[in-house]
Amino acid sequence: LVINSSDVILDDTWAWRADHGAGVGWTSNTANTGLIVNGDHVTAYGLAVEHYQKNEVVWSGQGGEDIFFQNEMPYDPPSQAAWMSSSTTDGYPAFVISPRVTSFAGYGLGSYCFFDLGIPIQSDTAFSVPDTPGVQLQDLLTRFLNGSGSIDHVVNGTGAAVDAANPGPAYVVSYP
Questions:
Q1: Is there a cis peptide before residue 176, judged by omega within 30 degrees of 0?
Q2: pTM listed for this prediction
Q3: pLDDT in tens, 101-110
Q4: Quick one: how far is CA 47 from the chain centroid?
């Protein structure tokens, strides 16, 4: 789903890539990103974006707002090497706000991991946002559901890791 228009409202939207069940797999039903927002003043209410193979959401529009975000990272990365956002960064943040964005508000945002192939897959962070006063996030969390691996931080290196030993949730009340 790509939003190129401004002044759009998304209400109760669920974007999902099948990654478990019969007839699905990492190489058989591929999709990188569930939602890309390029328009300005886009508001999302009740947004769920799950199981995509790179960033679940990429938000590049100014003045955006998301009230409730629910995410499960992909269950099925076949290896850590197959799921790296750079040569030195494990996994992909679920929700990325573009570095050029100067105004955004997010409330009640959660990302969960359940890497189910028995491989210790890691994601460095669930949320990646520019460190600017106009980008404000409230009430974020991560949670380890089951499987192998971890989410190492909630947002931009802040927030505790979640894994089998410490499933969380890990909270960040306000960022920055």
A1: yes
A2: 0.96
A3: 999 999 999 9
A4: 11
